[in-house]
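In the design runs reported in the main text, the only information available to the sequence generator was the tokenized backbone. The following block is the verbatim input for one such run; it is reproduced so that readers can re-run the procedure and compare outputs position by position.
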């Protein structure tokens, strides 16, 4: 989901203040990646593969006489150290309960590592393919595992990672778009009107549903963060772990009502589900789409973003985005 607006302090991060917001990874060259892995007592064999990631930078690193590791370098200034450590602790807690989650490796009692101003973590490499979202059997399997994740997530709250709420997913991204040069001045009023319609509709939907239980969640449980092997699925990338309603970890895996029912059939085998949360799905979908534009606007200074999302610099993209926001508001 790429929540992009938390800029907490980085206590314990050596030299992070020297990193540039405009080009945060300009100095992260292959030599520094290899040096960071070597600093953990591992012996890279020189094989490096940059993996698809925009928010952070992620590399697969070959290791002498051992399996490769994944090195994730956290975007400077996005998360506090405490928030990253909560992500790591949650992943380790899930792994300790025999859940198929890729958790960080521990070096000298530490999971959050530092090298030349960068914060990073190493994890084992786990391959796999995308799940089949047309398979009721696979969806039920995922539903059971997500329920088990939520049972662990319900034990205690996050203290540093925030919530899935309007402030994070609507107000902050809306402000980012309105202050960005990407949005043509002629569309400012139209965008503001559309975003405010979504905000009001989302607020009404949440009010109508009423209070729902907040859990520690995966937070970004889309098909790209689930890898399937011959032995079953495993979950990767808890970078967007947050407090929120259980349905947040279900709706992105459900292409239609039948898929959602299959997920819930599996979920209820392991844990009760509050069916009132299903009414939140249109609101969560609208929030995600509005947030997407704000995320790109916030990160546009990073050279990777104009290269990956050139269409966002076109007025017609914003015209379509505004139309999409009105349609989402109508659905709510």
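Verbatim output:
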């Amino acid at each position: 989901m790429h929540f992009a607006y938390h800029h907490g302090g980085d206590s314990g991060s050596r030299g992070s203040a020297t990193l540039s917001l405009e080009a945060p990874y300009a100095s992260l060259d292959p030599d520094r990646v290899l040096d960071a892995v070597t600093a953990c007592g591992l012996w890279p064999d020189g094989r490096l593969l940059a993996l698809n990631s925009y928010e952070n930078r992620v590399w697969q690193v070959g290791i002498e006489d051992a399996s490769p590791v994944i090195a994730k370098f956290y975007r400077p200034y996005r998360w506090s150290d405490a928030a990253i450590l909560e992500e790591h602790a949650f992943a380790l807690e899930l792994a300790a309960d025999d859940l198929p989650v890729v958790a960080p490796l521990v070096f000298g009692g530490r999971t959050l590592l530092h090298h030349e101003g960068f914060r990073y973590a190493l994890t084992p490499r786990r391959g796999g393919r995308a799940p089949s979202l047309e398979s009721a059997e696979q969806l039920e399997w995922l539903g059971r595992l997500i329920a088990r994740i939520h049972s662990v997530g319900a034990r205690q709250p996050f203290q540093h990672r925030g919530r899935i709420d309007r402030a994070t997913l609507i107000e902050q991204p809306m402000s980012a778009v309105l202050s960005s040069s990407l949005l043509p001045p002629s569309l400012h009023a139209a965008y503001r009107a559309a975003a405010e319609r979504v905000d009001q509709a989302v607020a009404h939907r949440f009010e109508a549903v009423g209070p729902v239980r907040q859990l520690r969640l995966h937070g970004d449980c889309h098909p790209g963060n689930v890898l399937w092997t011959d032995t079953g699925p495993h979950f990767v990338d808890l970078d967007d772990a947050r407090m929120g309603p259980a349905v947040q970890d279900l709706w992105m895996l459900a292409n239609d009502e039948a898929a959602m029912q299959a997920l819930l059939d599996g979920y209820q085998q392991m844990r009760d589900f509050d069916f009132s949360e299903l009414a939140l799905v249109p609101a969560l979908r609208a929030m995600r789409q509005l947030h997407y534009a704000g995320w790109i606007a916030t990160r546009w200074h990073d050279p990777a973003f104009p290269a990956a999302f050139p269409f966002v610099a076109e007025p017609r993209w914003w015209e379509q985005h505004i139309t999409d926001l009105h349609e989402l508001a109508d659905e709510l």
